[in-house]
Each structure stands twice: as structure tokens, then as C-alpha cells.
Amino acid sequence: MKSKKNLYLVIFFFLAVSCSLPKDTDEKFEPSLKKRTEDAAKRDGGIILFGGDKKNIGVSDFSSTNVMWRATLKTLNFMPLATADYSAGLIVTDWYSDQKKSNEQIKIQISFTSNEVRSDSVIVNTFKKICEIDGQCTNVTVSNNFNNEIKNLIIDNARLLKIEEVKNKKP
Q1: pLDDT-derived band at 71, boundaries 50, 70, 90
Q2: Which of 71, 49, 72 has its CA nearest to residue 60?
């Protein structure tokens, strides 16, 4: 019994020693997220995604200004989304099937390599799940032709959105 108490005492001692008290600092809290992010990037270094420059650090409006992102969401608007992470440049749909082939479902994964409207700015991977009557399902990758069709739809929508943006900017 006494050794059990000693063991608890030793564990408590190690836990107490490993804890540290917060430092007293005279630093003021910066309310601007952009300013805090810029300061952290200057102090600790930063990662620039999609060919951006340091003056855009902390700007989190990729999803609303990037025409490739918006065009992809517009193209896939009939499918439920499982993941849409604009900071990572990744969109993954949930499994989807139409009424005609209820035993087949597809899932589309879109990865962005750039925010420019070009064919190499987006990577499309599609997976198909085919379920038999007995409940046995198999997953297969879909042909590159289908992936290219999706990619071309995204790029066409992005071009249309870009043209619309240019028209709206002119007085």
C-alpha cells in the first residue's frame, strides 16, 4: 500500500516538474488576422502556395477569387461533397449514383496544382464502385477519357467565369 502511494507521489512529481508556467510578456494582442499571419511568416518563415508572393500571406480568399475553384464547384454542383479544402486545393465528392445505374457509384477527386486557367492546373481522379446483388462491391479507376471530360468542363467553366469577371470590371 505504501509503495503504491510512493508511486503516485513520483508520478505527481514528474507531472508537476514537466509543467511550465506561462511567461509574463508585455506584448499586446494584434486583432488583425492578416497582420498576425504576416508577422508569424516573417518571424518563423512561411510556405507560399500556388505561386503566390509574400505580400499575399494570410489572405484566405482563395475560394472566392480563384476561378478554377469556383468552376470546379459549379461543374460538380450535382454531386454531394465529402471534402472541400481550398487551403489544400482539394475537392473530393461523396459516392454518387444516378437513377439509371443504381448498382454503380462514382467518386471524383480534384487536386489543384495552380490557380491559373490551364489544363495542367487541375488533376482529376475518378473512382467507380460496382455493387452486385449479393452486396459484394468492387472499386475500379475510371478511364482517363472520363477524367479528361471532367477536366475540360472545369476549364471551360473557368474560362466563362474569367470572361464574366473581366466584363464586370470594365466601366
Answers
A1: very high
A2: 49
State residue 45 phi and psi, 5-degree precision: 90, 165
Length of the chain, please? Answer: 171
CA angle at 148 for the pair 49 and 81, rounded to the nearest 5°: 60
Burial (CB count within 10 angstroms: exposed 0-12, middle 13-18, buried 19+), residue 106: middle
Q: How many CB atoms lie within 10 A of CB 4?
A: 8
Query: What is the distance of C-alpha 15 from the center of its chain?
Result: 38
Please give the model's pTM, rounded to 2 decimal places.
0.60
Q: Which of 85, 89, 91, 90 is nearest to 52 (CA)?
A: 89
Q: What is the pLDDT of residues 127-166, one digit of tens each?
A: 999 998 888 999 988 889 999 999 999 999 999 999 988 8
d(CA 142, CA 104): 12
* Cβ atoms of residues 90 and 72 within 8 Å: no
| DSSP output for 41-54 | HHHH-----TT--G
Annotated domain spans of the chain: 28-60, 62-169
Quickly count: other Cβ atoms within 10 Å of residue 22's Cβ: 5
- List 102's β-bridge partners, or say none: none
CATH number of 62-169: 3.30.530
